[in-house]
Automatic annotation (TrEMBL):
EC top class named in words: hydrolase
Protein name as catalogued: Peptide ABC transporter ATP-binding protein
SMART domains to which the protein is assigned, alphabetical: AAA
Superkingdom of origin organism: Bacteria
EC number: 3.6.3.-
Gene label: lolD_3
Record keywords: ATP-binding, Hydrolase, Nucleotide-binding, Transport
UniProt cross-references to PANTHER family, sorted A to Z: ALPHA-D-RIBOSE 1-METHYLPHOSPHONATE 5-TRIPHOSPHATE SYNTHASE SUBUNIT PHNL, LIPOPROTEIN-RELEASING SYSTEM ATP-BINDING PROTEIN LOLD
Coiled-coil segments: none
Residue ranges constituting the ABC transporter domain according to the UniProt record: 2-235
CDD domains membership: ABC_MJ0796_LolCDE_FtsE (cd03255)
Record-linked SUPFAM superfamilies: P-loop containing nucleoside triphosphate hydrolases (SSF52540)
Length: 239
């Protein structure tokens, strides 16, 4: 589903060049829920931006569904992103004066295809993220947890191949974070939604099938729920 090979990313400011990703190899299966974990500045968001086609690598390859997104022209990549990917960010990034319903339907408008069928799907999504009755409420009047629910519904409205989330619980307290992570789990289990979630929080990472631990631009460790020492690993981290 996602195949990343020998991926590097360098940023230059003036004369100075920093290599942020130093050769990443990574395969993610269809239907997998993966957490990218690691300390601040280790390159997690940079990797997610590249996976999402929001930026281009310095070298290496990224295949999503057998399409090589780093070889696409910008316009082609934008279309791919709109059709195939869903994004959730730490700060929700909703349109504040639009309603819940309008925010969720927004990606459909961008494609000019708001049909009856789509409207029905928007209503279903509102229910499945637990916002029933709030259709007409303006986004800026919602709590943080509710805003993130809207953002998740918006990310899923195009039925994306992959849901990409960058610190989706970073602005939420533990209880609200757990609710949001449970929603991710629900879509992962019930719809086999492929999810790649960046987090620096082991509690959040513990919801995934596999944790990819980043350190300083390289993959330091990979641990899977199937591994016999998975629980011990998590416990050690939390201690
Ligand atoms: N657009 C950019 N220009 C220059 N440096 C950047 C840019 N984006 C990220 N960086 C640098 O890359 C490093 C990794 O950043 P990031 O991927 O955001 O880390 P993380 O998400 O793991 O905290 C940081 O040192 C950051 O300053
Ligand atoms: Mg980050």
């Amino acid at each position: 589903m996602i195949k990343v090979s020998d991926l590097t990313k360098e940023f230059s400011q003036g004369q100075e060049r920093t290599q942020v990703l130093k050769g990443i190899d990574l395969n993610i299966e269809e239907g997998e829920f993966v957490a990218i974990m690691g300390p601040s500045g280790s390159g997690k968001s940079t990797l997610l931006q590249l996976l999402g086609g929001l930026d281009v690598p310095t070298s290496g390859n990224i295949q999503i569904n057998n399409e090589c997104i780093n070889k696409m022209k910008e316009k082609e990549r934008t279309i791919f992103r709109r059709k195939k990917l869903g994004f959730v960010f730490q700060n929700y990034q909703l349109l504040p004066t639009l309603t819940v319903e309008e925010n969720i339907a927004f990606p459909l408008h961008a494609d000019g295809k708001l049909t009856n069928e789509n409207s029905k799907m928007v209503q279903e999504l509102i229910c499945s993220v637990g916002l029933k009755g709030l259709n007409q409420k303006r986004a800026n009047l919602l709590s943080g947890g509710q805003q993130q629910r809207v953002a998740i519904a918006r990310a899923l409205v195009n039925n994306p191949t992959v849901l990409l989330a960058d610190e989706p619980t970073g602005n939420l307290d533990r209880a609200k974070a757990e609710e949001i992570l449970s929603l991710f789990l629900k879509f992962h289990r019930e719809n086999k939604q492929t999810i790649v979630m960046v987090t620096h929080d082991i509690f959040a990472a513990g919801f995934a099938d596999r944790i990819i631990l980043f350190r300083d631009g390289v993959i330091d460790q990979v641990i899977s729920r199937k591994d016999s020492d998975y629980a011990k690993y998590l416990a050690n981290f939390m201690a």
